[in-house]
Amino acid sequence: MQGAIKSFVSHGSLIKTAVLQRVSVVNPVLRPLIFSRNESVSSARMEEHGFESTTISDILKDKGKSADGSWLWCTTDDTVYDAVKSMTQHNVGALVVVKPGEQKSVAGIITERDYLRKIIVQGRSSKSTKVGDIMTEENKLITVTPDTKVLRAMQLMTDNRIRHIPVINDRGMIGMVSIGDVVRAVVSEHREELNRLNAFIQGGY
User: Fold this and answer.
1) How far is CA 1 from the centre of its chain?
2) Please, what is the angle between helix 2-11 and helix 150-159, to 10°?
3) How far apart are CA 23 and CA 172, in angstroms?
4) Global pTM?
5) Closest CA to 149 of 19, 30, 62, 57
6) Cβ neighbours of residue 134 under 8 Å, at least 6 residues apart?
7) What does residue 202 show for φ and ψ, rounded to 5 degrees?
8) Burial of 127 by CB count in 10 Å (0-12 exposed, 13-18 middle, 19+ buried)?
9) 50 pLDDT exceeds 50?
10) Which is higher by pLDDT, 110 or 49?
């Protein structure tokens, strides 16, 4: 999965080049006409749309404020058992961890991987272990902002081998996105780009 995503990030721009090259392959004679007829309008619109322009903010808007995983949290004093139970109930793979009584103060993050590596593999009890004992602490978190480009977020997640990344602004944490959210956004963006290039080739702009 990680290797496939890395390859997608590295070579995604080749899609654009391949489609543009198809203009000369399909009809070399018409290519100058297509570009000269649409150059002024199409170039401006292509510039406006921008390739790989989707941001984390766009993902959060699509998820919605009430989407599962966007605002789920537990405290450092909760048991790991309760945290994993909450993840299972909401079908998510991670929870934001906050300090007791300080819901806006992020202390870290707990994931399924933390549970497997630090509870199951080590033979510890999830009912007697506190979340604060196994979470990834705030100072070790990899985060993004709403303005971070989706491809940049994907690169951070693959480079650091993480599947969830908190979204932070100047007021604190505002949500969390998963590798699934990011991949869906990138695939959607490439699909839209291909549609724009196809319209460009056919003189639709």
Assistant:
1) 14
2) 140
3) 48
4) 0.64
5) 57
6) 80, 110, 114, 115, 118, 119
7) -85, 0
8) exposed
9) no
10) 110
